[in-house]
Amino acid sequence: MATVSATSLNFRPLTTSPPLGRMDQHFAQISRQASSVRMIGAACTKNITFPSLRTSRFQVSCMAKPDTVQKVCDIVRKQLALPAETELTPDSTFASLGADSLDTVEIVMGLEEEFGINVEDENSENITTIEDAADLIEKLVQLNSSHRI
């Protein structure tokens, strides 16, 4: 049986692979570190495992309270004169509901009035779904209440 020593191995970086983005480089570095810790742990008869870094990377959830989402749905339904049977979900986009830019501005104004908040122009440009609006409202209401204390 042949033995291989660390000095007899020759490691070269791959020159044909495309450059990695910053997050990919960070993930690759952590993966290498985790692999070497697992090898060391195995040599010490301890099996060290790490949670996957990618399992919750793309988790999607609505941060807003259900009653906030419902109020946003009610305002959108009223502003766009949507029939009661039109299904609105947090993922519903204003554009898919037939809203143009003026409608979106009027929706934001209705939200400001209902919740007693002020939505800055740069924030209002990022609102494209009911969920976006509800999440922003929760954030602004929380900021307003923390400033009053």
Structure description:
Carrier of the growing fatty acid chain in fatty acid biosynthesis. Belongs to the acyl carrier protein (ACP) family. This is Acyl carrier protein. By secondary structure, the chain is mostly helical. The protein has 5 helices and no strands. The protein has helices at residues 22-43, 66-79, 101-115, 121-124, 130-148. It is globular and about 55 Å long. The termini are far apart.
SSE blueprint and pairings:
Blueprint: H1 22-43, H2 66-79, H3 101-115, H4 121-124, H5 130-148
Family: Belongs to the acyl carrier protein (ACP) family.
InterPro entries: ACP, ACP-like_sf, ACP_chloroplastic, PKS_PP-bd, PP-bd_ACP, Ppantetheine_attach_site
Domain Carrier: 66-141
Keywords:
mainly alpha, 149 residues, 5 helices
Q: What percent of the residues sit in helical stretches (DSSP H or I)?
A: 40-55%
Instruction: Give the CA-CA distance, first to last residue.
Output: 74 Å
Strand content: under 5%
Structural shape: globular
Helix count, per DSSP? 5
Uncertain spans: 4-11, 14-18, 36-46, 52-60
Oligomer: single chain
Report the biggest beta sheet as strand number plus sense, adding barrel if it closes. Answer: none
Radius of gyration: 26 Å
What class, by secondary structure content?
mainly alpha
What sequence of helices (H) and strands (E) makes up the elements?
A: HHHHH
Subcellular location: Plastid, Chloroplast
Family: Belongs to the acyl carrier protein (ACP) family.
InterPro entries: ACP, ACP-like_sf, ACP_chloroplastic, PKS_PP-bd, PP-bd_ACP, Ppantetheine_attach_site
Protein name: Acyl carrier protein
